[in-house]
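ARCHIVE RECORD
Type: protein–small molecule complex
Small molecule: copper (II) ion
Source of inputs: curated submission
Record status: active
Notes field left blank by submitter.
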Amino acid sequence: MPRFLLSLSFALLLTAARLTAAAVVQVHVTDAKQSSVADAVVSLIPLDAAPVFTPSTTPVVVAQQGQEFEPYVTVIVPGTRVNFPNQDNIRHQVYSLSKTKPFEIPLYGPGTEQSLLFERPGIVALGCNIHDWMAAYIVIVATPYYLKTATDGMARLVDLPPGRYRLEVWHPRLSGEANREVTIAAGDTAQQSITVILKPDRRIRRAPDGAGGGYK
Ligand SMILES: [Cu+2]
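STRUCTURE (tokenized, with ligand):
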């Protein structure tokens, strides 16, 4: 092949790669005081095509550990099963009053596990009927593109097909809504900064260790 044809086809190949190359979006979530916000759920919902997502095949775990839920915030897609192992030496009674998935698991003991399927997108606030301070959230998002912010308030979403998305941020203490439309170009590494208004932390403080709260 003549050299110019070779370089032409190489150039065309490069262009094609650039048009379809996956993009990266780095989202930084801060509060009104410009402090980084951890445990915020960042999701990108495709607007040009219906999102395709598959539930995780490995079990997603929300444990009861030291009379707390662990982790505090869990993000999954619809159709995901979540296991709730009791890793304490006392019993717990996990429930949710949320519209997305109201449930009440009967009291269950140390070393046992209960499991539930989450089919609808939405927010599920978890509580324990025995330990008032126990609180956690399961966020079900209908998109494969999601992450929780780390302690530096950052979420780095990769492998994004180019196109238009609704960028949504959710946090347990979010006041109002936090979303915007973004257009992602092929091969791009985009930065997005989102400031959220957070309500005061009203979590119930647990009793100091040894001061009660156990229920055998
Ligand atoms: Cu409990």
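CURATOR ANNOTATION: Residues 210-216 have pLDDT under 50 and may be disordered.
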